[in-house]
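Now for one record:
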Amino acid sequence: MEIKTRQGINDARQLGYGKFAILGIQHLFAMFGATILVPALTGLPVSTTLLFAGLGTLVFHAISKGIVPAFLGSSFAFIGGYLSVKQMGMELGMSETLALGYACLGVCCAGLCYFVMAALIKWFGSKRVLTFFPPVVTGPMVIAIGLTLSGSAITNCTSNWLLAIVAIIGVIVSSIWGRGIVKIIPILLGVVVSYVLAAVMGEVDFSSVSDAAWFGLPFSRETSVLAVFDNLDSTLLVSSIIAIVPIAFATIMEHIGDMCAISSTVGKDFLDKPGLHRTLVGDGLATSLASLFGAPANTTYGENTGVLNLTKVFDPAVIRLAACLSIVLSFCPKFACLIGLMPAATIGGVSLILYGMISAVGVRNLVESAVDFSNSRNVFVAALILVLAIGVKYGAGDSVAIGSIHLSGLAIAAIVGIVLNAILPDKLGMKVKSFHGKEKN
């Protein structure tokens, strides 16, 4: 895929510190809904999730030399693994919290797989490894990421279509017709307008906010993996590792797709500089650290990539500000409660746009890379990636079970796409462009 220079703001502080702060808040709102949804679905603590979303992002930026504008939030890929191990533990008479500790140990081991992949890339070179991930594979994968997420956005919208539509209109109007600061914070404005309307309509009950404390520690020993070692069940530990570690293959593919999407959005090849091995290590370390303290696995967030694409402000410092805000807010249960009361329809309306933009970036990757779809082998590769990713998501209950291992649609699609691209011959002998824009036969 050929990277073209994008017109954007690479130093948001040139806009002034007031606008800089608002941009950081916007990125915080963009990640918040999806990030807290994972603990809501699995039973993991919300405050710990916010803390390690922020810390994980800062760790990622430190390792990737601070030049990649990526935010790390809760990964949806491991939800099946969490639920599976939790069920196994509870069947053995464990509490839900303790069973989730075993799942977190499995996720911690999965995070270490990133280090193995990073070592291979460092040893053999990213260009050689990336021959297995050409645009005909990564483009459809990025498209599939957005489309598979779209279902959750629609589900949220259906709870109140009026609020969802108001959020969508707020984003579109601010982005297209807005001037000055309004034009670069459309997501935040869409959320605020819809939230205020919900409050006026009586759709939000704020009584629980007054009962929440202003300050509280975001983690405890009981929710960390330390509790597992008080009375270790080695059989469940091994089962957890076997069930969860293979999911890392899918999340590594997702990471590569996200790096391609961010590179295309910003107009810089982050797979070359700072290097895919560095971003993988940053993502893997963030995941392992979060898991040790009982937080969900981390992953680079497409929602924030959508914000980058919309605002054209590419300064990584804005992302780091959002990370710091997430850390601060993790110590405030009252704020977490206030944000948690945000109507699902408001989140759905904003997510609908952001998820669509992720898919649009994938389409742009294919176009700019000049992938030739008159070549049948390219059609087969792209078609099977899209159909498998979306079909498994909406036709097989999110994943396919192979024994105790659950593979998501994205994981299956990635495996099939990579294998087909490697074994199917290019009968027409067409020249295709690699990610770095070089032609090869």
Summary: The chain has a mean pLDDT of 82. The first strand starts at residue 72 and ends at 74.
